């Protein structure tokens, strides 16, 4: 049996130019193909009318141009759209579109399941399936934008879906290059955010390669609590993680770190927790997104009352931090933060791919 055809969408425009050049096809042809695929959303080579007939035929014969198909779409009462997308091997991944007045944000996944097993996260409970290839990451943008009405377009992309982006760094970086490249999706760098649970040594690697916003899922200001919530903390404890952030070049009030802090009743929501957070983050230009825990069947944790959440926020404000209390969207369709786990549809299959591994093996 012959090897499967390569995916065009695995290659950002510069890599595609190089690849075409090696095949004797001029570089500007690669840019034309990128403009069709990403600019115009056309995936049928026969419709790429400014290419030569020969190149159109070669593209159809020698390459794959589509990596994901829509399996299901759930619409939330608040307008949030969750897409369940199917890869060629049957793996299912989720992407969530969040239309707001000023912007439309797409949340993309980077892995099938996740190996980090954070104790409050539904994806963590699934275990790890596999890394997504670059084409499967960017095809989430292609499939989901087709669901928008013509007057709306995706303005922001956040890598906050299933999986840990920094454990799939190479494919994530190539996907980000496609998002940012003027010949591809052409997003401005400040409209793309990569979130990590704290794979400290790979944070400088990521930012040295692509100029994205960095979000860090902190959730606790002490190692005792963070070990419990994010087992990866045993490997990269707070001193290591925050030390890495302090040493990043180019952090400033205009380029802050975005910290995510999921508020969990009785676990990390006390005034003392808030004061500890103020102390810990001193000197790091940051914004703190407080997210009330989205309860789900795989976790005993609950969100705090609104009073407790605003008390927590008040302590941060008085301590000089810049917190926002994020309203959760898409809760009625399991599209809220950390709920991407399409149980029933995906559960059995991702679980077959592997159980949560101890963070040491990561
Ligand atoms: N692995 C990366 C990317 C996932 S981002 C990371 O951890 O940053 C998804 C965000 O939602 C993370 O901040 C995660 O900690 C948070 N989250 C997960 N489960 C949640 C839940 N049940 N309620 C609220 N936030 C949750």
Describe this structure in words.
This protein has 362 residues and is α/β, with parallel strands linked by helices. 33% of the residues lie in helices and 18% in strands. It has a ten-stranded mixed β-sheet with strand order 1-2-3-4-7-8-9-10-11-12. Strands 5-6 form a two-stranded antiparallel sheet. Helix 5 crosses helix 6 and helix 10 (271-281) runs parallel beside helix 11 (306-318). The longest helix is centred in the first third of the chain and has 14 residues, at 27-40. It is elongated, with a radius of gyration of 21 Å. The chain binds S-adenosyl-L-homocysteine. Residues 118, 120-121, 160, 164, 195-197, 217, 260, 262, 291, 293-294, 296, 337-338 line the site of S-adenosyl-L-homocysteine.
List keywords for this structure.
362 residues; alpha/beta; 10-stranded mixed β-sheet; two-stranded antiparallel ribbon; 12 helices; 33% helix; disordered C terminus; binds S-adenosyl-L-homocysteine
Short structural summary:
With about 350 residues, this protein is α/β, with parallel strands linked by helices. About 35% of the residues lie in helices and about 20% in strands. The protein is built from twelve helices and twelve strands.
């Amino acid at each position: 049996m012959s090897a499967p055809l390569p995916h065009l969408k695995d290659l950002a425009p510069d890599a595609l130019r190089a690849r075409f050049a090696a095949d004797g096809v001029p570089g500007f042809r690669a840019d034309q193909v990128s403009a069709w695929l990403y600019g115009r959303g056309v995936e049928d080579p026969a419709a790429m009318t400014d290419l030569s007939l020969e190149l159109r035929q070669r593209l159809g014969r020698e390459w794959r141009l589509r990596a994901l198909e829509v399996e299901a779409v759930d619409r939330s009462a608040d307008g949030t759209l969750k897409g369940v997308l199917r890869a060629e091997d049957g793996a299912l991944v989720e992407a969530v579109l969040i239309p707001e007045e000023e912007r439309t944000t797409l949340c993309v996944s980077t892995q099938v399941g996740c190996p980090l097993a954070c104790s409050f996260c539904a994806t963590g409970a699934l275990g790890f399936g596999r890394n997504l290839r670059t084409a499967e990451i960017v095809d989430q943008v292609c499939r989901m934008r087709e669901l928008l009405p013509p007057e709306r377009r995706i303005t922001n992309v956040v890598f906050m879906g299933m999986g840990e982006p920094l454990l799939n760094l190479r494919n994530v970086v190539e996907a980000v290059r496609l998002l940012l490249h003027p010949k591809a999706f052409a997003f401005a760098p400040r409209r793309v955010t990569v979130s990590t649970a704290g794979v400290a040594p790979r944070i400088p690697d990521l930012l040295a390669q692509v100029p994205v916003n960095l979000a860090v899922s902190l959730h606790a200001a002490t190692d005792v609590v963070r070990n419990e919530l994010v087992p990866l903390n045993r490997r990269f404890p707070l001193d290591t993680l925050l030390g890495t952030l302090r040493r990043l070049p180019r952090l400033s009030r205009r380029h802050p770190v975005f910290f995510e802090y999921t508020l969990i009743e009785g676990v990390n929501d006390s005034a003392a927790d808030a004061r500890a957070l103020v102390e810990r983050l001193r000197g790091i230009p940051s914004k703190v997104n407080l997210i009330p825990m989205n309860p789900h069947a795989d976790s005993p944790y609950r969100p705090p009352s609104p009073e407790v959440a605003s008390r927590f926020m008040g302590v941060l404000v008085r301590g000089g931090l810049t917190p926002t209390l994020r309203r959760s969207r898409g809760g009625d369709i399991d599209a809220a933060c950390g709920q991407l786990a399409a149980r029933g549809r995906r559960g059995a299959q991702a679980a077959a791919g592997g159980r949560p591994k101890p963070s040491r093996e990561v």
